Amino acid sequence: MFYRPEDGHGLPHDPMSALVMPRPVGWISSQDAAGRRNLAPFALFNLVAYQPPHVMFAPTGQAGGRFKDSLNNVEATGEFVANMATWALRDAVWHTSIPAPSDVDEFELAGLTPIPATIVAPPRVKESPVHLECTHVQTIRLPHVDPDNANHVVIGKVVGVHIDDSVITDGIVSEAALEPMARLGYLNYTRVTEVHAKPFPTWPPKKA
Ligand SMILES: Cc1cc2nc3c(=O)[nH]c(=O)nc-3n(C[C@H](O)[C@H](O)[C@H](O)COP(=O)(O)O)c2cc1C
């Protein structure tokens, strides 16, 4: 099948999320100008540069007439932490996606432990094994199908990295031990359980 998104897909459910997958989940902690904590998962999330490392997450549109707290907080304070969402933490991750009013602390709601970051003000999620402390670099505003709404891509520079020592074996971070969760299409999720190593090809190609 072929379709132009503006014409519609003709399927019972939008297939788009099943066409770019799996998507890692950035569990974004932030705080507002008054220091009130916020935590929410974003599967439109990724590493976008290595040196220096940068990450992005994308808050889509408005809910109830206001942009998402994570976007507002990063815009107001210039800082956030991207905590790794693991399979073991999937219920808590899901819980923190609740569309709560901005004065609700999702750490408290989901029974999670906020611990101080080293460089930035927003707290880290103690239960998560990886925390990337970030400073805001840029927000890209993208058009929305509703001209009164907007999509956003928030880019942060990673200024501090925490890795739980228990997932480092012989100097290597064990992907399998971390078991990160990821989003698939629709309401489906997956986790990393299989890892295969393969070096990049070099030029000239090696004969088979
Ligand atoms: C696993 C998962 C991934 C999500 N990914 C996104 C995303 O990439 N972009 C987005 O706008 N909302 C996403 N959501 C929904 C937000 O987490 C939800 O709107 C949340 O209430 C936003 O919180 P905030 O207003 O505190 O920022 C996701 C929800 C879940 C459960």
How would you describe the overall organization of this protein?
With 208 residues, the chain is mainly beta. It has one domain (13-191): Pnp Oxidase, Chain A (Roll). The protein contains four helices and 16 strands. It has a seven-stranded antiparallel sheet with strand order 3-2-8-11-12-5-4, covered by helices on one side. The longest helix has 9 residues, at 69-77. The mean pLDDT is 97. The structure holds flavin mononucleotide. The site of flavin mononucleotide has 18 residues, from strand 3, helix 1 and helix 2. Flavin mononucleotide (FMN) is lined by residues 25, 38, 40-44, 58-60, 68-70, 93-94, 97, 99, 183.
Structure classification: mainly beta
Mean pLDDT: 97
Using the 3D structure, state the CATH architecture: Roll
Low-confidence stretches: none
What is the radius of gyration computed over CA atoms, rounded to a whole number of angstroms? 18 Å
- Attached small molecules: flavin mononucleotide
For the secondary structure, the number of strands is 16
Largest beta sheet, briefly? 7 strands, antiparallel
